[in-house]
Amino acid sequence: MESYLVDITLILDSTVRLAVPLILACLAGLYSERAGIVDIGLEGKLLAGAFAAASMSAVTGSAWLGLLAGIGAALMFSGIHGLASINFKGNQTISGVALNFLAAGLTTFLGQSWFKRGGYTPQLSGDQRFNPITLPFAEQLREVPILGQIYFELISGHNIITYFAFIAVPVTAWVLFRTRFGLRLRAVGENPKAIDTAGISVTRLRYQALIITAVLVGIGGAYLSIAQSAGFNNNMSAGRGYIALAALIFAKWRPGPALLVCLMFGFLDAVQFRIQGQVFPIIGEVPVQAIQALPYILTVILLAGFIGRAVAPKASGIPYTKER
């Protein structure tokens, strides 16, 4: 019984760790899409943030400077997306896809040019990474049956970005649904003309949403390279930006359900690591490639089953032209 509890606790612990970049990217997309900006470029921003964070940490030896660099890279990409979709009123989907291609090529090119490691950054250690934090009394309560083990393994022992991601969910819900800024942000995604008529700048609000988006997704990218891992490797975002968008649609653009969906994806990812190499009755050993594809298969199923039922903000993806 105790071994089963240990296995379950370890899987749940992995679930939390693997869900963090999804949560941050999903919340990032929530702000932009609530403001009427479709952000397919979350994948590229995650990748750019991861590369910038790892590069800065490797050069300076500071994880905090790496975090700022990751946010800065995401801000640059958000600025390009805003310029294309808000100022030039271009197609937001095409702009986002272009950013994804740009990030994939640019990170590989710069990684090879700067570090001569085939696109990889040097391995990070010590203060170059965000290390786990042991919460008060975690060691003392470790031997307490069930609750002590849950506190030690599942709640304690995570890095600061992990705790930030979970705190960001209720904060996002409060900002969007309990503040004047959140009301205006949601209104600009539903009826930008009404906001404009009230004398509020649609352009400013949408850029503010993109700035918040960049900060969150930049932190998510930094988590991948200087918290979850010990450096950057090619394409390390591995489709997480797209999965976050699928989670956002499935959650119908609400923070609480978005957290649950991201945890579901994280759980599936954690399980696939645990069952690799396991032999099952009748079917035998499942190929590793099939197991690794599970999160992406679930993404397709969710999109196919729920995208028609989920109602996006009415002005989502539609450039706004001020009437004169």
UniProtKB/TrEMBL annotation:
Per the record, membrane topology reads:
Multi-pass membrane protein
Q: Which UniProt keywords apply?
A: Cell membrane, Membrane, Transmembrane, Transmembrane helix
Q: Which GO terms describe its cellular component?
A: plasma membrane
One MF term from GO for this chain?
A: transmembrane transporter activity
Q: What is its main location?
A: membrane
Where do transmembrane segments lie in this chain?
63-84, 96-115, 160-177, 207-226, 295-312
Question: Which InterPro entries does the annotation name?
Answer: ABC_transp_permease
- In which compartments does the protein localize? Cell membrane
Does the record's keyword annotation contain Acetylation? no
Recorded superkingdom: Bacteria
User: What's the name of the protein?
Assistant: Sugar ABC transporter permease
